[in-house]
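Shift notes (night). Ran Putative allantoin permease while the centrifuge was going.
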Amino acid sequence: MSTSENATVATAPTPHTDSSHATPSGLSPHLYNEDLAPTLRAGRTWRSYNIFTLWANDVHSLGNYAFAIGLFALGLGGWQILVALGLGGLFLFLLLNLSGFMGEKTGVPFPVMSRISFGTRGAQIPALIRGAVAVAWFGIQTYLASVVFRVMIVAVAPSASSLDDNRVLGLSTLGWIAFLILWVVQMVIVSYGMETIRKYEAFAGPIILVTMASLAIWMFIRAGGSIAWSTPDSKTGIDMWLKIIGDAGLWVAIYGTFVLNFCDFTRSATSRRAIVRGNFFGIPINMLVFGAIVVVLAGAQFKIDGKIIESPADIVQTVPNTLLLVLCCLALLILTIAVNLMANFVAPIYALTNLFPTKLNFRRAGVVSGVIGLVILPWNLYNSPAVITYFLGGLGAVLGPLFGIIMADYWLIRRARINVPDLYRAAPDSDYHYRSGVNPRAIIALIPTATVALLLAFVPAFESTSSFSWFIGAGLGAIIYLAVADRHRTFVDVSGESIAVPSKH
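Came back to this:
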């Protein structure tokens, strides 16, 4: 039985019923709606398999393949890549369990979880930072998927290539057609809520694993049944181990966004055990499978012609059979949509819902997020190194300190004792009102640690430590928050069941 099920029943608000959309008595309509409300324990649907398929999709994303194959190009051999990914996977397994348990206990999404340490109003800071990074990447990933879609369209209808010669706002007619079709597909899926996203992830996971494994087997056969395990420029000795550890750190940093808002998904998890099992098979085990596929793809291509591919899309384009090429492209599209939905769509939806709870619900916030991802013309952002490096990279660097502050407050200061109903109360006597809804101690911890994280990310003198910037930022955020936190407060543990809603909404 979880801690929340043994919670002290304080002056709880009037229970929320399925037939009523009104805010429960005693709660603020500016802090509560059905999408921000905690989920009832009864009827939760995210089991081990669903958690696993999140990672089955996300780990095998095209961006991750590009990163891991890049390690081969930068001097790591096959077994070194597996060690780097394995170490990163173990770190992530531990971090994601800590983050996931928070969602399972409280049943609340990330913006509401942030109210615990930042206050009912101050929580807008971490929620909007996370949401801004995600909505930009939603548009960029949709654009990258549309590039694959264009390859598939031309393979099926070669005459369509004539639509790829002009430019309208930076994209060809064929590019616009491919982008808008994928954009609409994602908008439709999101419009049906988190339960539909869960079902889509469960559908996509096996397809991705089978496709990538088949592609690796095909390349292995093409290479004559053996691969190149390294390049002539492979690192050795201390340089090799520093590279392995640094790349393991970078692998964790790639997931720095996701470890922050993992509770958006685990708030509907059936148990802690489901989270641990799903994470175990989805992170360390799945990452080793991913690493093996990377080693085979890169090593086989290098043996064939001495070239190092940049992503699986390079191999897909060489598939000689049109039907197989189309099937591979479809699999990559299914994968990219799955990754986009979980990593880049859910976070801004909850951030916007948290910002305008009386105006937006999950569906409306999804529309707003999607429209923003369209009007920013993401292909132009992707082609701008300054935007990627300084805007998205800068926001991403701040996520480490945010994680450290939130985790230190929840696990070390409060020892997981949370008054869930008070997360939705704006009254001055609320546990999370602090000063006008903002916890100044969290802000005091965030400002210097965010500054350090940005310096590590952008100042060339700190290039040698940049691989560990997420860890350093998270560690400093936790240490400084522990130093300034109020340790004289009394923390009570109150379940949110009385104000909870079914997880299927």
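Confidence is low (pLDDT under 50) at residues 1-20. The domain at 48-384 is CATH 1.10.4160.10 (Hydantoin permease).
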